[in-house]
Amino acid sequence: ILNVEQSPQSLHVQEGDSTNFTCSFPSSNFYALHWYRWETAKSPEALFVMTLNGDEKKKGRISATLNTKEGYSYLYIKGSQPEDSATYLCAFPPGATNKLIFGTGTLLAVQP
Amino acid sequence: DAGITQSPRHKVTETGTPVTLRCHQTENHRYMYWYRQDPGHGLRLIHYSYGVKDTDKGEVSDGYSVSRSKTEDFLLTLESATSSQTSVYFCAISESEGEGNQPQHFGDGTRLSIL
């Protein structure tokens, strides 16, 4: 069974802290790795789609790295702000397909 | 924001009744998806469509059917709703270029309760 694991399940940090979390996925037959941000009472919003080993993507204070050979991606948030509070999801397609398998997410709470 | 509208936004119905959820997009994207979101499971794909009249099953398709007669509309039907289908349902869309490497854009969700 193809699966994606995210850790930690939840994270509480203080405003200004930098933080990171992990997405682990099957390293064989890799096509892409997606990151989404999901704020409470809203819908998931795409952050990054990463396709190449060693990829690094950045959007403001959020960045992500990808290691396809060992099957993991890190998401980093620099100087967390309360508005960064959300669930961060990763997902991958199990092949050359648009079907995505999602992890259960990391819930980030940033205390002011 | 991607032009995706889900209707209804909330629905309460009884076990055994048919239910149809609608997803409408104004982006002319080829791919459309239906997911359900349940505690402890994250988002799980029910069905998706890769064109008009072209659909395929996802990982939790049992008890659901879909139809896509126009590019802009993707319907999800529960023929005979069961309590296990109580969930929040999300529609998503994506462009066709590059299998698996296009971001998906989500609607606001439909909260469905089956009593």
Q: How is the secondary structure organized here?
A:
The complex is a heterodimer of chains A (112) and B (115).
Chain A: E1 5-7, E2 10-14, E3 19-24, E4 33-38, E5 45-50, E6 56-59, E7 62-67, E8 72-77, E9 86-92, E10 101-102, E11 106-111
Parallel strand pairs in A: 2-11
Antiparallel strand pairs in A: 1-3, 3-8, 4-5, 4-9, 6-7, 7-8, 9-10, 9-11
Chain B: E1 4-7, E2 10-13, E3 19-25, E4 31-38, E5 42-51, E6 54-57, E7 65-70, E8 73-78, E9 87-94, E10 105-106, E11 110-114
Parallel strand pairs in B: 2-11
Antiparallel strand pairs in B: 1-3, 3-8, 4-5, 4-9, 5-6, 7-8, 9-10, 9-11
Describe what this molecule looks like in 3D:
Chain A has 112 residues and is mainly beta. Chain A has no helices and 11 strands. Chain A is 0% helix and 51% strand. In chain A, a hairpin with a 6-residue loop joins strand 4 (33-38) and strand 5. The termini of chain A are far apart. Chain B has 115 residues and is mostly beta strands. Helix content of chain B is 0%, strand content 56%. The radius of gyration of chain B is 13 Å and the shape is globular. The model of chain B has no long low-confidence stretch (mean pLDDT 94). The interface between A and B is medium-sized, with 25 and 26 residues.
